[in-house]
Design a protein that fits this description.
The protein is about 45% helix and about 15% strand. By secondary structure, the protein is an alpha/beta fold. The strands form 2 sheets. A 7-stranded mixed sheet has the order 6-5-4-7-8-10-9, sandwiched between helices. Helix 4 crosses helix 5 and helix 9 crosses helix 10. The structure holds S-adenosylmethionine. S-adenosylmethionine binds next to helix 10 and helix 12.
Length: about 350
Amino acid sequence: MSSCSPTNLPPAFRLNQMIMSLWVPQVIHAAAELGVADVLAGGPLPSSAVATRLGTHPDATERLLRALVTLDLLAPSGERFELTEMGRCLETSSPSSRRAWSRLMGGPGVWRAWGRLTDCIRTGRMAWGAADAAASSGTEHFDEMARDPAAAVIFHQAMVELTRGVAPGIVGAIDFRGVRRVIDVGGGYGALLCAILEAHAGVEGVVFDLDHAREGALQLFASRGVGARASFVAGSCFDIAPPAADLYVLKSVLHDWDDARSLKLLGKCREVMDDSARLLVVEAPAPAGPCERGNTALDWVLTFSDINMLVNTGGRERTEAEYRALLDAAGLCVKGVRETPSFYRVLEAARA
Ligand SMILES: C[S@@+](CC[C@H](N)C(=O)[O-])C[C@H]1O[C@@H](n2cnc3c(N)ncnc32)[C@H](O)[C@@H]1O
């Protein structure tokens, strides 16, 4: 190991690096919010031209671009700045775009919520909503989107960014024999449903989600050429049962909720399921115990995603055994678990 290996740095220095790393997502967020990558998509530009196109302060823009060079999102090209391969992932139209995800994570709502983490650890409650537990609905994060359509668009687009790349692998792991109608419960704009309908021409599908996802979902269905077989039903999965179908898919939905809310929404699905219907929980299960937590990228993501759920929605990441127990408590029996090429796993359940 070389003497300048990060693990040989003094502990206080390494800690300091982590403390200061809060600057990183905000630099990326500012670039995403302003649309720096879209401006540079046509080729390298000097900072003054970037500032002119963005309508931003020239000196501050130059300093932002230099920080983006440090993060390997931009590279200097003489007096100009150009996008690196990673920087191109901030372009709006990139198939690997993370622009909306950055705008969500670094935006005012989530950023403010993370700033209240200490309170969340003290109380065990999420940062959104009433300080008084009795006055909290537990759904404040999503309620807020109904009042702030721009924030809703960023949230749902961020989910499309995170789901569309893994969706074909998830679809490939599902058995569609005998399936004519699929409900994507909490499907957002329907990135997973679109992949299902693209792969299975004889299937029709419905996204069942809150009304703030409707317009974006209909636009995505049309842009993916599945509009004739896809529809949107608005409603809260805690209050009304989804439409009847052969297959119910819940991707990245249960991890948003505590056990009580998860049981309520699973119960609403169970209400309309007949004996042949299947319900699929698509999640990335957490490692089985603290001792099993290693240092892999997946463990890192799930450990911090667990805190993100605590802070933003009051939910949690669960182990496969915990998902099984939840389904069991909802009167659903797990028939099988399928791996996918990504870290998502598909737990397939039917009425017990
Ligand atoms: C983490 S996102 C997952 C979106 C999508 N399934 C995916 O994986 O890309 C959670 C989804 O649940 C939806 N949701 C939240 N509360 C809901 C409710 N009460 N009823 C129906 N959907 C809800 C949100 O609008 C959002 O689309």
